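Sync notes, pocket subgroup
Present: LS, DG
LS reminded everyone that the earlier model was apo-only. Rerun requested with flavin-adenine dinucleotide included. Inputs:
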Amino acid sequence: MPLAPATAAALRDAGVPFEEDVPLAKRTYWRVGGPADALATPGDAPTLARLLRVAAEHDTPVFPLGNGSNLLVSDQGVRGIVVSLVGELTEAHAVGDVLIGGGGAKIAVLLTRAAKHRWAGLEMLAGIPGTLGGAVRMNAGTALGEIADRLLDVDVALPDGTVVTLPKAALELRYRHSTLPSGGVIARVRLQVGGDWGESEARMRHHLERRKATQPLDLPSCGSTFKNPPGDAAGRLIEACGLKGYTVGGAQVSPKHANFVVNLGGATASDIDAVIRHAQAEVHRQFGLTLEREVQYAGVWT
Ligand SMILES: Cc1cc2nc3c(=O)[nH]c(=O)nc-3n(C[C@H](O)[C@H](O)[C@H](O)COP(=O)(O)OP(=O)(O)OC[C@H]3O[C@@H](n4cnc5c(N)ncnc54)[C@H](O)[C@@H]3O)c2cc1C
């Protein structure tokens, strides 16, 4: 659906770059999903804040897109404005032992920079293919810790057109959970770096080797589909239900790791959703446990 002409005109007047009817599948790791009504690409925090204000004034929904590595976009696409951060909102630098990165900075790029500058302490992010904003939103982490361990504060753009700095405590970070102000988009993230680089690098290397051996990294997926319930592993439960290899259309419970749903090629978002629902229903039927999705759904789901 095109944006309302008044909304499009107001975005142009506010100097917000955007395009209409933009396919999203290639911007997500599962490689599925329909188009966004509009994709806006603000390159700095003031432009992002203006975009949110215009959208709020025109009652237009906004969805922040990071690297699409934890996102199932519906086949019908996303109504309203999808926001992808660009320009200085994807950059990162260190001031002393504080790393300052844009919400759209890719973690992989950050870790390459960290290696070059010997910034230790980010090993818990190794192998996570998201952006800094997406990682804070999800409180992403691994066996080595979570981003909360190193987070100092974030700048968040709000629908009233302001940008506020929120300390870590305000985000209520828990296992793969955060609380952001309603309609807020993370523009900038500050992390404490420091420690023994040699040790940090060795832990990362060991962790990445283990992931390669246990995860189906050769096929499109969004990593862990479900959160682990307390004291157990979602993958163990799904495997115990006999669901490894369970397939709908082009979507499959990975035979290598049962908490990964992979796109074998040609999957639709509905195929992936069907696999997710079936796994959830079977685990509930056999173990009486409701698995909570870790992956986020975007767009129109009927
Ligand atoms: C192969 C693979 C392995 C993975 N391994 C791990 C792992 O070990 N640990 C782990 O925690 N995750 C893992 N993930 C999942 C994923 O990489 C993380 O959840 C990551 O933090 C998502 O970041 P993203 O930028 O891709 O966010 P997206 O997938 O684009 O979005 C995820 C959510 O964050 C929101 N969001 C994104 N950017 C912003 C922003 N700037 N402001 C506000 N909200 C925002 C979106 O609206 C959405 O709700 C893996 C994924 C894959 C594909």
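DG: The mean pLDDT is 97.
LS: Residues 29, 63-71, 103, 127-131, 133-135, 137-138, 140-142, 185-186, 217, 221-223, 296 surround flavin-adenine dinucleotide (CB under 6 Å).
Action: DG to write up.
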